[in-house]
Amino acid sequence: MSNVIEIVEFTDPVCTWCWGSEPVLHKLETRYGEQVKVSFIMAGLVKDITAFYDSYNDIGGDPVRSNRQIAKHWLEASQRHGMPVKIDGFGLFSRERVSSYPLNIAYKAAQIQDQTMANRFLRRIREASAAEAKLTNTTEVLVELASEVGLDVARFVEDFSSGAAQEAFEQDLATTERYNARGFPTFLVRFAGKETLLRGYRRYEDFKAVIGLMTEETIIERPTPASEEAIFAFIRRYGSVAPVEIATTFDLTGGELASTLASLVLKQTIVCREAGNGYFVSPKISSAACDTATGICKAV
Q: Could you tell me which InterPro entries the record lists for this protein (predicted)?
């Protein structure tokens, strides 16, 4: 597609800087609209924590010790990228749960079923892992999250367990190896047969510059008014967003963000829920409203 630029993130659902990249990706999707396509390659961060070692953050080896180091690293990263994390009760890894691979395979199972739901599922896994300290590398929690986003649970379990999702994940690992994407996130930017790699966490301005260069300014961002209506539409689009995602997308100061959210709360159009060291904002569900995707009706 000559009028679309593709941004492929090599990722793992428990990578904290991938979590921190969510505001930037949402801004790209909002500012460039249908001109940009964001997709994901599951790159598998931790095959076995007992054999893993991140020398920079001193993570790896004993699972219990690794959990403490991961929590420390995530909190430090959160203070930089602004996405919420919960370190109280964090215990993702244990002697029985040594890998993040099940989360990657779960995404591939969801992708077999429906791409849009798979991306919604990936976001939900990230939230549950980073901001809720859930044991997302267990089948029970993954099935629960799949149900929350409206996936066909029976089919999800079948694809997750039968080897189909495992095979798809192995193909992603091969792609990751081919591009030598060893640190996450790594972004592959594609346009009209051209490709370039951006390694590590990147600011919106980095993507904007690369998009302009690769497309010779034929693809440009569109003005995004910071009106209450536009901000509420953004919240509705994604369903659950951290304040930093709104501020980043609409270039809001702290005061402007607080004022807008306070107004929307007063109008009873949004609700806020605590999450670790921060919170998420979601549209308020009207009385007896039913979600056709999940088949769940909720009352206020």
A: Thioredoxin-like_sf
Cα–Cα separations (whole angstroms), residue 148 to 69, 120, 125, 151, 236:
30, 10, 11, 8, 17
Strand 59-60 and strand 270-275: the pairing is unpaired
Kindly state whether residues 25 and 102 are assigned to the same domain.
Answer: yes
pLDDT, tens digit (0-9, with 9 covering 90-100), for 130-170: 999 999 999 999 999 999 999 999 999 999 999 999 999 99
Is residue 274 domain-shared with residue 132, that is, in the same domain? no
Cα–Cα distances in angstroms (integers) from residue 57 to residues 50, 77, 200, in the given order:
15, 11, 15
| Total of domains in the chain | 2
What whole-number distance in Å separates Cα of residue 245 and Cα of residue 50? 34
- Residue range of the domain that includes 257: 228-298
Say which DSSP state 184 is in.
S
**Count of Cβ atoms closer than 10 Å to residue 71 Cβ:** 19
| Residue 15 domain flag | yes
Q: Report which residue type is found at 27.
A: K
